[in-house]
Amino acid sequence: MKAAQLLFPAYLWLVLAVFLPLSAMVFFSFVTEMPFTGKPWSMTVANYAAFFTTGIYAKLLLSSLRLAFEVTFWCVVLGFPAAYVLAKVLKGRSREAIFLLVILPFWSNGLVRVFSWAMVLRSGGILDTLLNAVLPFKVDIDLIYSYPAVIIGLVHSYVPYIVLTCYLSLQAIDDSVIEAARSLGASRFTVLRRLIIPLSLPGIVAGAVLVFVPVIGSFMEPRILGGRTGTFYGTVIEDQFVAVFNWPLGAALSFILLAVVLFILAAASPVMRRSA
């Protein structure tokens, strides 16, 4: 009884903050018009059928999946070495300073981060100015409103998740195990491939999931840094809610995205269980 009383506030918060809004969005996805607009409405599955009858939605979903895979890949490539240095190389105050720099993006507003990258990547921006001050020839790096700009912005936003999860897994690896492998003649690459990566795989998988899931539905970075090339599934959903005010279609597209994400996680669950 005491346990139920202690859990009651948490479950109450879940019901009020998660399940009720989610239930409302499920209802909205099956109506022709929003009930509170005063227009006549009825139940329908046309909002879900629009995804299959309009090819653009499927194409944008595939583009978003590709974007999520690429961002996750680069986050792992950049984040895992940083986590290894933090966990096994740096000690004391230097570790604390670098760790602070890693989590610093969490302390700033997302819009501030994205617009900062817009100032860096545009023609005549900070990156152009620095390179032209150093190089003997003139360069014009104009990456704004491009696919690489979207990748850069998303990687900057989500790479800390990889660093944090991998750091926790690497910290759990006993240094004496690595030293024993080295004393038996294993090369650094062999130790990395046969020991460190397998033992830290739970952190890599957990970080990859934390990055992959939100990137599929991201809209802020693609909208600001991608321009016309930044039209993805998430930006279309945002348009339905904010610009077009077609909440039923936006809700239906959102739940289709949720179903795709759950399917991918279910397909990857055997790998995730083996790495756990």
Descriptive terms for the model:
276 residues, 2 domains, mainly alpha, globular, 13 helices, MetI-like fold
Q: What is the overall silhouette?
A: globular
- Classified by CATH, the class of the largest domain is Mainly Alpha
Query: By CATH's scheme, which homologous superfamily of the largest domain applies?
Result: MetI-like
Rg (C-alpha, Å): 23 Å
For the record, the CATH architecture of the largest domain stands as Orthogonal Bundle
The name CATH uses for the topology of the largest domain is: MetI-like fold
Q: Helix/strand-derived class?
A: mainly alpha
Number of strands: 0
Q: First CA to last CA: what distance? A: 33 Å
Question: Tally the helices: what do you get?
Answer: 13
Average pLDDT metric: 87
- Give the count of structural domains: 2
Quick one: biggest sheet?
A: none
Give unreliable regions as ranges. Answer: none
Helix content: over 70%
Order of helices and strands: HHHHHHHHHHHHH
Name the beta content range: under 5%
